[in-house]
Amino acid sequence: MKALVNFLILLAGIVIGALGFAFVFAGEIYDYQDTMDGTHLSDVDAIVCLAGGRGRIAAAGDLWYRYWEKAHREQAAGPLRTPVVYVSGMGPQSNWNVFARQVRRGVLEVIRPENVVLETESRNTEANAQWVVRYSRERGWKRILLLTSPYHMKRSRFMFEVVIRDAGVPLEVQTLSVYQEPFEPGEWRTGLHGIRVTVIEYLKWIYYKTFWRPTKVAA
């Protein structure tokens, strides 16, 4: 019995120590610079929005609308070209109506189903990346713009590039973080939600950076 108590105390100490370490260093996940500044629109084949975070789909719709406006301003110079909005991990029950409820009315007036891909199979970031690889092969995508929350971007970019490299697909990943959380990256310690989200993501970042190896994507 005493040995069990000692073991539980040791285990509790390890857990508390790990959480304390994470609390001190978790801000590392925000140490990331997007490749796109949100002002200048890079030429991309798809806006890849990782579903799951509040406001991400709406932000993807707004970004697509800016590409649409730019294409119409420059239509005299060549054919209209806008990227596809690719929403990753929407869930098996998702459809156009679910997507439409999450974008602004102005976007909905001009965007069409053929401008959108709703990927409903993936359940995590690795699967998000694997499905993007499959679609890029089918559609010949060369460059994508990855869109997710700031706390999630560093790990997402890392995992996408590892999966893409492992699959041997010539696909470039640009990034743009979406600031939709109720806390700024530099203020995550000011509330329980920010602490929980940041510490959990930091522990995931440590695991994936250190131990993770991707599953092979089927050709």
Main sheet? Answer: 5 strands, parallel
Going by CATH, the architecture would be: 3-Layer(aba) Sandwich
Helix content: 40-55%
CATH class assignment: Alpha Beta
Helix-strand string: HEHEHHEHEHEH
Spell out the blueprint of helices and strands:
Layout lengths: L1 H24 L20 E5 L5 H18 L10 E5 L7 H5 L4 H4 L7 E4 L5 H15 L3 E6 L1 H18 L4 E6 L14 H19 L9
Parallel strand pairs: 1-2, 1-4, 2-3, 4-5
Helix pairs in contact: 1-7, 5-6, 6-7
Descriptive overview:
The chain has helices at 2-25, 56-73, 96-100, 105-108, 125-139, 150-167, 192-210; strands spanning 46-50, 84-88, 116-119, 143-148, 172-177. The chain is α/β, with parallel strands linked by helices and 219 residues long. Helix 1 crosses helix 7 (192-210) and helix 6 (150-167) runs parallel beside helix 7. The protein is globular and about 75 Å long. The model has no long low-confidence stretch (mean pLDDT 88).
Keywords:
219 residues, 47% helix, Rossmann fold
A few lines on this structure:
The chain is an alpha/beta fold and 219 residues long.
